[in-house]
Amino acid sequence: MESEAIQDELQSLELEINDVQGQISALIEHQDRLYERKSELKTLLKAVSASVTPVAPSCPDGSSAVENWSEPFEWDSRADDIRFNIFGISKYRANQREIVNVIMAGRDVLVIMAAGGGKSLCYQLPAILRGGTTLVVSPLLSLIQDQVMGLAALGISAYMLTSTSGKENEKFVYKALEKGEDDLKILYVTPEKVSKSKRFMSKLEKCHNAGRLSLISIDEAHCCSQWGHDFRPDYKNLSILKTQFPKVPMVALTATATQKVQNDLIEMLHIPKCVKFVSSVNRPNLFYSVREKSLVGKAVVDEIAEFIRESYSNNESGIVYCFSRKECEQIAGELRERGISADYYHAEMDVNMREKVHMRWSKNKLQVIVGTVAFGMGINKPDVRFVIHHSLSKSMETYYQESGRAGRDGLPSECVLFFRSGDVPRQSSMVFYEYSGLQNLYDIVRYCQSKTKCRGSAFFRHFGEPSQDCNGMCDNCALSSEVKEVDVSDLAKLVVSMVQEMQAKDQRVTMLQLGDKLRTKHKDLSAELKREEIEHLVIKLIVDSVLKEEFQHTPYSTNAYVTTGPLANQLLQGRKTIKTETSSRQINKKSKRSSSFSGLESKLDELRKEISAAHGSMLPHTVLSTQQIGLISSQKPDSLQELESIIGKLKTDKYGDKILEVMRHDTVSEQLVEDGTKEDTCKSRSSKRAKTQKNVVLLESSEEE
Ligand SMILES: Nc1ncnc2c1ncn2[C@@H]1O[C@H](COP(=O)(O)OP(=O)(O)OP(=O)(O)O)[C@@H](O)[C@H]1O
Ligand SMILES: [Mg+2]
């Protein structure tokens, strides 16, 4: 054999080996994903069969008992009284009553409940019911402040020990813990207090020894696990609480926890025998949609401003999430130029400034916060009506959390994501070094690119839950449109060949350059294909492993380049087809998915703002929740007694007179309007009559003539 022929064969073998290796790694990746899904499904199956067959745990005397936490308990009527007359909550939501019962029975509990599901009530109610002091560990100062303020407004003796609480406060709390003389129902601390302050732990021990430590609650418990998204090293040391106080019931609560995080939590907190309550991740009041994001920045802001003006003209609160600090500032400014009351929030701002913006928004004096992901865990506002993502999140999990800040009060709210393929490389160059970072990003890209799959089912799948119908609460299910699948394999081959050619010449290419080169080389295409269509295809090829992203650091940034992926040859050899979806969907810009205030509701909203302003630190929703406003205005109570049956005793005692005054005023003005209308109608009738008579007269006179 001649050397040239040998070289040729060698080269083609080399290529074939590369191809096979590519396929092997793609298959291995696929296999990993299948294994992961298999383990999720197995866990799911266990959970499903466990919920069908009641667990029979061992009792201390060795007998076994079926746990039914929904049955009547001796504390039921006292619990109902506190729920309604102190918290003003007319009925329990799913799992709340059962969780209260488990805690009252002295057992440990792990609660996984979606954002806004009502986790706080699950430990605050037993805290009052059990007597003694409840310790709550919470990760953020702002969360703690909100909770303490809210409880104080309900007349519950709640305190906090944090780096900012003053000496006097600390003295009071320590004395209350040690001597039990003063009333201290709920004490909030940050995890640092538990892990770093020996003084605090010794006082807590005294409280416990005197039999006054009644419950320990770990809020945002996912922070304990390094697999949880907000991992906090100090949370790791919380295991000391169960070791020191083994008989005190512990409740750990979080909004989202995968199976891995759940197991980790149980182990880290030393609560192996805990009763677990896992609620669905479903948020039935949230409407999810994805909109195509224009290449022109101003057009995107126009669309956002129009959306807010059209659907939320009553100053309803919202959040716009942006990718970068600079973008936040710019978009907040541009929204203001368009008449929207907006301000920005990001990590590089001065703490006081940030706090001020947050406070204005919490008090409904600012409609929209334009924030980076730094505007996160501390948000406790229940009446956020819309969350808009100006760029995509880095994973389904973060998107679920960020968008989930909408509608925590259970009322209809909207989550809109503006997607364009050009945003993907910006995110990928930030997440590529994280564990499964790219895989997680590509999952949310698939979510955005799909024009047919239910958005809700994407969340169920991600969190390993059986699928449920979203009841028309996403664009793909609700908005009728004609979606066509188009085979774009030929165009994809052109793209991949071009990448291959450049690679052969040792040239790197970004997605943007690739689009430009393709349009220059194939002039015939450039007339037909827009830049965003090519970008859409390139991203699809990346997500499908036909192309691949590679990263290179410069002193100022990390650049994402496009190279061939493991399935490139399959496509080039015609063993793989690529299809994209096109849709003729028209966004119904005027569609309104959340209710807005009626006349009376607006007046009650004004009233709660006035009371909140007069009390300084109290937030409007603590005075009256939006739900309570809705109930009052639909049931129109006209006595304190009737009002009490709607919002409970405490709020009626505090604000009842003012509420009834607003109601009376409203009835009077309604009456006036009605009378006015009647009068108008009469007037117009009589003037019509006069006109008619005039005509008649004229006619008559003409007849007479
Ligand atoms: N049973 C109920 N009926 C009506 N409203 C309720 C009920 N339980 C709680 N809420 C209200 O729902 C809102 C959210 O409750 P909460 O703050 O406890 O949610 P969460 O589960 O802790 O959410 P997150 O994960 O975001 O912290 C609050 O305004 C609360 O008053
Ligand atoms: Mg909470």
From TrEMBL:
Cofactor list: Mn(2+); Mg(2+)
Cellular component GO terms held in the UniProt record: chromosome; cytoplasm; mediator complex
Catalytic reactions on record: ATP + H2O = ADP + phosphate + H(+); Couples ATP hydrolysis with the unwinding of duplex DNA by translocating in the 3'-5' direction
Coiled coil regions in record: 3-30
PROSITE patterns in alphabetical order: HELICASE_ATP_BIND_1 (PS51192), HELICASE_CTER (PS51194), HRDC (PS50967)
Cited InterPro entries: DEAD/DEAH_box_helicase_dom, DNA_helicase_ATP-dep_RecQ, Helicase_ATP-bd, Helicase_C-like, HRDC_dom, HRDC_dom_sf, P-loop_NTPase, RecQ_Zn-bd
Segments forming domain Helicase C-terminal: 300-452
Sequence ranges assigned to domain HRDC in this UniProt record: 594-673
GO molecular function, one term: ATP hydrolysis activity
EC top class, as a word: isomerase
EC number(s) from the headed UniProt entry: 5.6.2.4
Name of this protein: ATP-dependent DNA helicase
Organism: Brassica campestris
